Amino acid sequence: MARGKSRRSAAKATRTKTQKKKSAKSAKPIELYYWPTPNGFKISIMLEECGLPYVMKPVNIAKGEQFSPDFLKIAPNNRMPAIVDPQGPGGRPISIFESGAILQYLGRKTGKFYPADERARVEVDQWLFWQMGGVGPMAGQVHHFRNYALETLTYAINRYVNEVNRLYGVMNIRLRDRPFIAGKYSIADMALVGWVNGWERQGQDINEFPNLKRWLEAVKARPAVKRGMALGLELRQGIDMKDPKVQAVLFNQRARAG
Ligand SMILES: N[C@@H](CCC(=O)N[C@@H](CS)C(=O)NCC(=O)O)C(=O)O
After folding, report:
1. Looking at ligand 1, which residue's alpha carbon is closest to its atom 1?
2. How far, in whole angstroms, is CA 230 from its chain's centroid?
3. Cβ–Cβ under 8 Å, residues 147 and 241
């Protein structure tokens, strides 16, 4: 019986190996719907950090490709990034929009950069949401009013430059006694790096924030971050954000009929 069992388990082991080989071969890459911006970088960085196979599907937001019916099925908010994972839960495809939700999904899927321990996970979540609700939207408004708006609106510029300055101050204090925002390097750092990297365009001086500066240099030195933040940069070349056609697509949208 013992022999039979061991033969059976040997056969099982061979089957599992073959199946594994087969599924590794047939594993379809994750589709990354992407444009090279700080929100896009979050996901290219995470995919690179995890070594997950992926294929980049450019969504040219300056041309309005975010409004194509096929993309809206995946991302009803007409914004990138989004992903389709052909091997989602239960082995079935899943599509996800909102960069924070994608980061958490990939963290749970791989068990990387998103701790399973509840206390450690809460640490990551709060700083991830802080980025999603604070740094991203506020720095986004600075980029808009300082760099893209055709009128100079001093009140709006000051309001958002000051708010980003406040947020960088919070981050600088937080990083006083820990290398990364949630302690260990995590998806929260990945969410932040593309935004903080734009400090100059946001009217900030990184030298005012020495801990933040040290953090930025450390995160940017990671090979996966370098690859993630280099992905598709060439696609942006020659796009003039002040071109009336680009401005109409990006800055003049109202609700569309359902
Ligand atoms: N909260 C969203 C924001 C995404 C977002 O704002 N993406 C911008 C580029 S950075 C976009 O796709 N814009 C297209 C548009 O405004 O029509 C996320 O984090 O995924």
Report:
1. 98
2. 13
3. yes
Residue nearest to atom 11 of ligand 1 (CA): 79
Ligand 1 centroid – CA 237 distance (Å):
19
Q: Which two structure tokens, joined as six digits, stand for 249?
A: 């697509």
Residue range 101-142, pLDDT digits in tens: 999 999 999 999 999 999 999 999 999 999 999 999 999 999
Residues 6+ apart with CB under 8 A from 17: none
Determine whether the shortest distance from the Cβ of 62 to ligand 1 is under 6 A. Answer: no
Q: For the segment 135-191, what is each residue's pLDDT rounded down to a tens digit?
A: 999 999 999 999 999 999 999 999 999 999 999 999 999 999 999 999 999 999 999
Identify the three-state secondary structure at position 229.
Answer: helix
Return the SS3 of 84.
Answer: strand
Q: How far apart are CA 165 and CA 214, in angstroms?
A: 17
Is the shortest distance between the CB of 149 and ligand 1 below 6 Å? no
Is 66 touching ligand 1 by the criterion CB < 6 Å? yes
Q: Which residue has the tokens 């690859």?
A: 227
- Residue reference for tokens 């100059």: 200
Distance from CA of residue 130 to its chain's centroid? 14
Specify the amino acid at residue 57.
K
Question: pLDDT tens, 65-77?
Answer: 999 999 999 999 9
Helix (H, G, I), strand (E, B) or coil at 26: helix
- 3-state SS assignment for residue 180: strand
Whole-prediction pTM:
0.91
